[in-house]
Amino acid sequence: MADTARKPLVEVDGLKMYFPITAGIFRTKVGDVKAVDDVSFTIYEGETLGLVGESGCGKSTCGRAVLRLYDPTAGSIRIDGKDIGKMDQGTLRPLRPKMQMVFQDPQASLNARMTVASIISEPLDEHTRMSRAEKLARVYELMDAVGLNRDFANRYPHEFSGGQRQRIGIARALALNPKFIVCDEPIAALDVSIQAQVVNLLEDLQDKLGLTYLFISHDLSMVRHICDRVAVMYLGRIVELAPRDALYDAPMHPYTQALLSAVPEPDPATETSRQRIILQGDVPSPANPPKGCNFCTRCPKVMPVCREVKPALTEIAPGHMAACHLLDTRNATTAGATGGTGAPEHTQQGENA
Ligand SMILES: Nc1ncnc2c1ncn2[C@@H]1O[C@H](COP(=O)(O)OP(=O)(O)OP(=O)(O)O)[C@@H](O)[C@H]1O
Ligand SMILES: [Mg+2]
Fold first, then answer.
1. What is the pTM of this model?
2. Which atom of ligand 1 is nearest to the CA of 285?
3. HEC profile for 100-131?
4. What is the tens place of the pLDDT at every residue in 306-317?
5. Burial of 50 (0-12, 13-18, 19+ CB in 10 A)
6. Is 61 in the pocket of ligand 1 (CB under 6 A)?
7. Residues 201, 170: contact at Cβ < 8 Å?
8. Over pLDDT 70: what percentage of the chain?
């Protein structure tokens, strides 16, 4: 599916989202939570970009900022050629239908007092001048598209199972024919048996409607299944971004290597030889990230430069980006000799594994 000759639909450049920390009765600003700190990526039309990383690394904040559910601290966000990064909400309103979000918890994101039909038609009420009959026809069409029985249009969310509720959320997100959907952990709250159904539905809809997804998840196996390219976040920054297979088969950044080493291998032969990399210490607070590389306090391969200079996200192999000094120096010394492609040579040493 990954075909980078395609047109970019979403271009994020230098995105920062800081939340102020205030103290005292005058709520004086004493610092910032740097939830997203200088993130750049492109999503091509029809593609699924995965966004993975541990809890609290800034995935949801990034997804919400890209859709301008927040006012970003800095950076540009181009969607279909228009920079929406600094647009005021009034100017943004007519563009809203193009970009939608599917949330993790359908229970919490659906209004319990509204019927399914009214939930799905809410965006139609807000953004279109359809007649009642037209709206109802559209609601039925959407219910068909996501596999919900039309007869249940007048029921309430609590009468549905978790998977069906997520289908209601997806139908509502589709109501205005969006091009781009941020799926924030869309299956995390569902039973394992239901997860595959919802993922299949999202994939079918993508094929039929030509949708582009930013798929946020900490389920690395699911991301491998559904995404064309994957971005790995650590403490507010992207540390690696690569085509799916390149990332899973030959991760370059020490953090990605550690993260992936925790994923069980389906093949028992390789599973027994799998070396788990256990990282020492905790993730630092996003209010007080380290001076150099954000990963320097836990990196098993840390060098002096890592504690001083933030590494930039650079292309190490075609389409494979990483932000790591180790790879920069390796490139400088060996790129000419080896062509600079493939996995890094250094072998994994599981610390205290
Ligand atoms: N509205 C807010 N105000 C202040 N801090 C926030 C706000 N939203 C998020 N944060 C902080 O920003 C950081 C990133 O949070 P975010 O929810 O984006 O992480 P996440 O990667 O989505 O985590 P999870 O996997 O648990 O959903 C966290 O430290 C969080 O506490
Ligand atoms: Mg989140």
1. 0.90
2. 29
3. EEECCCHHHHCCCCCCHHHHHHHHHHHHCCCC
4. 999 999 999 999
5. buried
6. yes
7. yes
8. 92
